[in-house]
């Protein structure tokens, strides 16, 4: 197509004003893109394949793709059935044993049904999550498991337009995309502050990351602040250091800074067990006794918390159970969709526990 006549332009403008475009429950097709752009399906196919197409034609097709949220199908095997053999799982870090356990639980739930996982690492970046969602949805997955409830608006819209079952994990969002399984990070952090207070500590600090990208860490900080305010323990002692993912080295530097600013601190809650381990090692280097000089608590019940000296008081969750429950929810949604029934909309709460150990 070398160009467009005035008649073609009129067809395009009329198509752009139509209201009968696919809804969020009806995934758009190539034919819808062609109709909206005022071109043939062959032209849309050429644009998607990166072949030679007039620039203004390519622009119109791309505008129609963006307007509809159309996703080219990269899985040829699913063309006839409309169903792949994959579940998409997106986690913020592949080096975290907790997220690895969540993926393992998801795998064990869906593998007996003949499904495999397409795994993506977002590196705590919402933009990276959006890119992975757009890319992996082209494989027409049976369902999508996300970590957390913080997403770009474009990611939420894309998932809704794709009409694919979605479960958000490790959080209980007020407005889930569809379903969720997790716990309140803020509530769990506040419970840990309460535990420290019951143990007699009054000058309690918090060590977290400096990035707002880790929404679960942000919620734990919020829970700490709320508990400090509610208990009348004075001004919060908040030290934020390091980009996500938080490591042991971050904890060591952070506790050093915390004690330099508030030397009379008698307890500290760390955003994760890895940070807590780093803080305890720094205390050893400085000749401070844990918990006699400084009590240290973590979050997540990582393996390191059980073998550290002293063992680390922590908030224990069930990462494997989160993944397993997410898999069961995705399977139930996919079955309902195949049978033409409304997909369920559930928020499943996973319990957490305060594990009191030697560090407090």
Question: What features would you highlight for this structure?
Answer:
360 residues, alpha/beta, six-stranded parallel β-sheet, four-stranded parallel β-sheet, 12 strands, 14% strand, elongated, disordered N terminus
What's a concise summary of this model?
With 360 residues, this protein is an alpha/beta fold. It is 44% helix and 14% strand.
Provide an overview of this structure:
The structure is a single chain. The chain has 360 residues and is α/β, with parallel strands linked by helices. 44% of the residues lie in helices and 14% in strands. It is built from 13 helices and twelve strands. The strands form three sheets. Strands 2-1-3-4-5-11 form a six-stranded parallel sheet, with helices on both faces. The protein has a four-stranded parallel sheet with strand order 7-6-8-9, sandwiched between helices. Helix 5 (97-110) links the parallel strand 1 (86-91) and strand 2 (116-121). Helix 2 (30-37) packs across helix 4 and helix 8 crosses helix 9 (215-231). The longest helix has 20 residues, at 319-338. The model is unreliable at 1-5 and 76-81 (pLDDT under 50).
- Spell out the helices and strands N to C: HHHHEHEHEHEEHEHEHEHEHEHEE
Structural class: alpha/beta
Broad shape:
elongated
Q: Work out the number of β strands.
A: 12
Largest sheet, in brief, is: 6 strands, parallel
From the alpha carbons, calculate the radius of gyration and give it in angstroms: 25 Å
């Amino acid at each position: 197509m070398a160009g467009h006549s005035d008649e073609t332009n009129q067809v395009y403008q009329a198509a752009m004003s139509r209201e009968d475009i696919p809804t969020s429950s009806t995934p758009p097709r190539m034919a819808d893109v062609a109709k909206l752009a005022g071109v043939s399906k062959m032209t849309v196919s050429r644009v998607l394949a990166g072949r030679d197409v007039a620039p203004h034609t390519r622009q119109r097709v791309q505008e129609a793709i963006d307007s509809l949220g159309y996703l080219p199908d990269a899985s040829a095997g699913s063309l006839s059935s409309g169903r792949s053999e994959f579940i998409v799982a997106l986690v913020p870090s592949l080096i975290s044993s907790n997220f690895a356990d969540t993926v393992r639980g998801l795998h064990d739930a869906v593998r007996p049904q003949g499904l495999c996982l397409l795994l993506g690492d977002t590196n705590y970046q919402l933009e990276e999550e959006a890119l992975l969602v757009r890319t992996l949805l082209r494989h027409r997955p049976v369902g999508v498991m996300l970590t957390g409830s913080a997403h770009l608006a474009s990611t939420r819209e894309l998932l809704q337009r794709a009409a694919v079952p979605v479960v958000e994990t490790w959080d209980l969002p007020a407005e889930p995309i569809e379903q969720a399984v997790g716990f309140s990070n803020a509530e769990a952090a506040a419970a840990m502050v309460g535990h420290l207070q019951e143990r007699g500590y009054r000058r309690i600090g918090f060590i977290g990351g400096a990035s707002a990208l880790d929404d679960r860490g942000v919620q734990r900080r919020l829970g700490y602040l709320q508990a400090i305010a509610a208990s009348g323990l004075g001004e919060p002692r908040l030290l934020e250091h390091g980009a996500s993912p938080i490591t042991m080295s971050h904890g060591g530097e952070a506790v050093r800074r915390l004690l330099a600013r508030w030397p009379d601190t008698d307890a500290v809650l760390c955003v994760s067990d890895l940070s807590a381990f780093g803080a305890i090692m720094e205390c050893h280097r400085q000749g401070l006794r844990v918990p006699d000089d400084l009590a240290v608590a973590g979050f997540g019940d990582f393996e390191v918390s059980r073998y550290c000296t002293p063992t680390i008081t922590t908030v224990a969750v069930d990462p494997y159970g989160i993944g397993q429950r997410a898999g069961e929810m995705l399977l139930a949604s996919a079955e309902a969709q195949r049978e033409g029934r409304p997909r369920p909309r559930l928020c499943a709460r996973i319990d957490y526990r305060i594990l009191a150990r030697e560090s407090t």
